[in-house]
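Session log. Operator J.P. requested a structure for one protein chain; no other inputs attached. Running the standard single-chain path with C-alpha cell output.
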Amino acid sequence: MSVSFERALGDRIRSAARRSGTGVSSWLAGAAAARLRADALREFLDEWEAEHGALTTDELRRAEAELGLRTGEPAA
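Structure written below.
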C-alpha cells in the first residue's frame, strides 16, 4: 500500500510517530484502527438511536464517566 500526504501533514505524522516511539507505518496503522473503531461506534449508536430514541444528556454523561472521558465538553 502506498499513500501520499501534503508535506505539512506528512511532517506532522513523522513527528507524531517519532514522539510515540514508533515508525510511521505503525503510527498510521494505529490511527487508521482508531478511526475504524470510531466509525463503527458511530454507526452502532446511529442504529441504536433510530430504534430506541436519542440518548439523553444524563445517559451521555454517565457513559463519559464510565469510559473515563472528559465530561462537559460537546461531543464531536
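Operator note: Residues 46 and 53 are 10 Å apart (CA to CA).
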